[in-house]
Amino acid sequence: MAPATSSTSSAITLNINGEKHQLTIDHRTTLLDALRERLDLTGTKKGCDQGQCGACTVLVDSRRVVSCLNLAVAAEGREITTIEGMAEGDELHPVQQAFLDLDGYQCGYCTPGQICSAVAVIEEHAAGWPSAVTDDVGPEAGPPPLTPDEIRERMSGNLCRCGAYVSIVQAVSRAAGAYEATRDERRTAAAKEAAA
Amino acid sequence: MREFGYQRAHDVAGAVALLAADPDARFLGGGTNLVDLMKTGVERPARLVDVRELPLDRVERTADGGLRIGATVTNSDLAADPEVRSGYPALTQAVLAGASGQLRNMATVGGNLLQRTRCGYFADVTKPCNKRSPGSGCPAVGGEHHNHAVLGASGHCVAVHPSDMGVALTAFDAVVSYETPDGPGEVPLTDFYLPVGDTPHRETALPPGALITHVSLPPAGVAARSRYRKVRERASYAFAIGSVAAALRIEDGLVREARLAFGGVASRPWRAHAAEAVLTGARAGGETFAAAADAELAAATPLPDNGYKVPLMRDLVVSVLTELAEGEAR
């Protein structure tokens, strides 16, 4: 039986880390609160709750967003990836591994958001997106080198009150290098999967 | 937050009809501003009509060589678009100078134009504000206003429009297209924002219930050599205290064509017509550029704590135009 809903709530299905979750939700519920309070996915953190700190960053349809300004009801039908969905089994995502190896955190509260954001930063850069510190934004210029300045600008939506920025930049840089090195491998694997 | 209904629109006519059915309804785009304002009680809609799935998510080249940008194109997609990057680079730079990567992935072109001021008094429902609560007063005039307007303000409101994107769009003569229950319409962006006067709560020329569907840029060869530069209180992820979108075409040392718009200093993205008039036909160089800035800023009405914006904008104009002129000479 479908759960009872009113004009101010809806029965929705959220697709999170490849799993479907059905819930009846008050329209006022943000995606952040749905994740944490309804689905027990507490890896995503609440910082400012007004879109200014990036602690609640998740991926929606592969793009990084702040879940505190997304309404859960508006996220129905989209593919949501949280920090809980980054590793493949026991194998950490290269960005997670780089944060661990290089101490890209102190207290760790902003870290899930930093990691989700960094995963997307690397994809955005690989797709050729310029940033506010890119000298030539012309499409012929190609992706700018992912320098520390580029990383700082692209990661500026994620604040770290401990000030672990120096090692965060190093971790993103190392993970981006690993991504670059394995790109052909991943393309081949993706092509095989598509053909199968 | 007030409880509200939610509906997802799938076509433009349906979205407009849903909104018309409820005077207390609002369109929901990326939600980066509206949801935030709902949390603080500044906005209290009874219903949200989600327009993000409308088929308005394309940037298209028009037959005349301009661009037609759908209202639900995200800031990220607009900034990354090859046609924008080559034909209107200042627009890409302006968009990338705003907000964060996360917010640019959510925010839409239509929503960007309709975002509300970040004036602290507007955002605080315990304070008077003529924009939020008409007739209640403007505490910013005699209070905290170091980030507020020096152009186009009135004694009733000195708030600035926060958009970066809008500044570049204004410089390049963008036209806003919209749909209403009574049919479509359009308005140039330079006429889109209403003069503040004694009605700061009336912000745009959109008819009631209108949905922005597109923003069109006419062809403009001059825009291919354009630049956006923004000054803020930290290096990234902050609103402008002043910004400039500029384009120049110089031949034989003379300015043949100039486009100039200011951000962060006025109630709207500010097209600098007076400065453009000084520039056009004059010899390209520091003196001309300073005279152009002075011509525009002659109308400035600074308050005790935001007068710094006048010399800041003068320096910014001279610097950006000099950079463009030197690039032209190379």
TrEMBL record, chain A:
CDD domains: fer2 (cd00207). It holds the Pfam family Fer2_2. It comes from Streptomyces camponoticapitis. The keyword Transmembrane helix does not apply. Keywords: Iron, Metal-binding, Oxidoreductase. Coiled coil: none annotated. Residues 10-86 form the 2Fe-2S ferredoxin-type domain. It comes from the Bacteria. InterPro entries: 2Fe-2S-bd, 2Fe-2S-bd_dom_sf, 2Fe-2S_ferredoxin-like_sf, 2Fe-2S_ferredoxin-type, 2Fe2S_fd_BS, Aldehyde_Oxdr_Iron-Sulfur, Beta-grasp_dom_sf. This is Oxidoreductase.
UniProtKB/TrEMBL annotation, chain B:
It comes from the Bacteria. Keywords: Oxidoreductase. Coiled coil: none annotated. The keyword Oxidoreductase applies. Residues 1-222 form the FAD-binding PCMH-type domain. This is Oxidoreductase. It comes from Streptomyces camponoticapitis. PROSITE patterns: FAD_PCMH. The keyword Oxidoreductase applies.
